[in-house]
Amino acid sequence: MTLKNCTKEELIFVIERLELYNPSQKHFVQRALNDVEMQREEKKIDEAKRISDYAFQKRQEYIDLLAPYEGKLLSDIPASVLEKADSAMKEAQKADRKWNKIMGFSRAVGGTGL
């Protein structure tokens, strides 16, 4: 049998036995737990960066769509362009909400709260 064959409960039992047989093992267990925590944080940061890059891309798409119409009346912008720009901005905002959730923010930052 190997550790990979163990259930969660069995792994906990093995770790507790190691600590019982050799109390100095607690230090190594704590180091391993710190390593696991660091891996989780790295995954979270990588995912947050991917989402942030996507939000940036969608905002850039929004800007690129509307740039040719800068200084013109809203009524002069074709409806199809407005729809595409609106869709891009909604995707960026959706990504922002997902980023906030991953990073542990319950509300968007920057609001007055009033």
Features:
114 residues; mainly alpha; 3 helices; 71% helix; rod-shaped
Compact description:
This protein has 114 residues and is mainly α. Helix content is 71%, strand content 0%.
What best-fitting shape do the alpha-carbon axes yield?
Answer: rod-shaped
Summarize the main sheet.
Answer: none
Poorly predicted ranges: none
Number of helices: 3
* Arithmetic mean of pLDDT: 90
Give the helix/strand class: mainly alpha
Distance between the termini: 60 Å
Percent in strands = under 5%
| Topology pattern, helix = H, strand = E | HHH
Helix % is over 70%
Q: Which oligomerization state do the chains in this entry correspond to?
A: single chain
What do these coordinates show?
- The protein is mostly helical and 114 residues long.
- It is built from 3 helices and no strands.
Fold topology:
Elements: H1 8-21, H2 25-66, H3 79-103
Helix pairs in contact: 2-3
